UniProtKB/TrEMBL annotation:
Tagged with keyword Transit peptide: no
Keywords, sorted A to Z: Cell outer membrane, Membrane, Signal
InterPro entries documented for this protein: Bact_OuterMem_StrucFunc (IPR050330), OMP_bac (IPR006664), OmpA-like (IPR006665), OmpA-like_sf (IPR036737)
Any single Gene Ontology cellular-component annotation: cell outer membrane
Species for this entry: Thalassovita gelatinovora (Thalassobius gelatinovorus)
Record protein name field: Outer membrane porin F
Cellular location(s): Cell outer membrane
Amino acid sequence: MKTAFLKIALLGSVALIAGCENTDGYSTFTGEAGALVAGGDFGNATLNNSQIQSGEKTFVSNLAHRFAEEVPTTINFEFNSARIDAQSAAVLRQQADWIRQFPEVRFKVYGHTDAVGSASYNYGLGKRRANAVVRVLSQYGISRSRLEAVVSQGETQPLIMTENRERQNRRTVTEVTGFVRRHPTVMDGRYAQIIYRDYVESAVVPTTLTGIENSVTAGSTE
């Protein structure tokens, strides 16, 4: 009788310990205190805190919102084309004039397509559209090194959910993404000087850019 009681007690203890086991495979008895907090992704939190404390994350976020509010960030394309028409070229000139105010800032150009055609073809088409925008912005005096991160989203992020042709889905979007590495004003942390730059003087369009829209629209279709 006594032996049976001890067996029952032992089995109960094993069950209790097993119940304390964590679904991630860690034991509350053997795991290091705090080992499972946030899944171990403290590196991301540290990076975020560093960017917040330095002012970089807040500045980039605010600048991205300002860019989207002050100039059109999107241009559209004809079906199966990466050709930039006169209307789109005028929008890109506005983008370039705005971007020229902030030589410390990098931008990404995202290329998109509608859902007609294969995914692999549309990925390439989205990339050609993004590259076409980068070429025009560089003609307007923006360094390619600030637009080097050209991304294609293909047909994966439609604005209008349809399998048919849709012009709104055939687009590129220009976005603020961060700072140019090793730029002196950024390395010194002089964010106020960047923010309060003389916008009017720095945004003057060089006279040598006259007529670029015409040369763009006369180019060949990709």
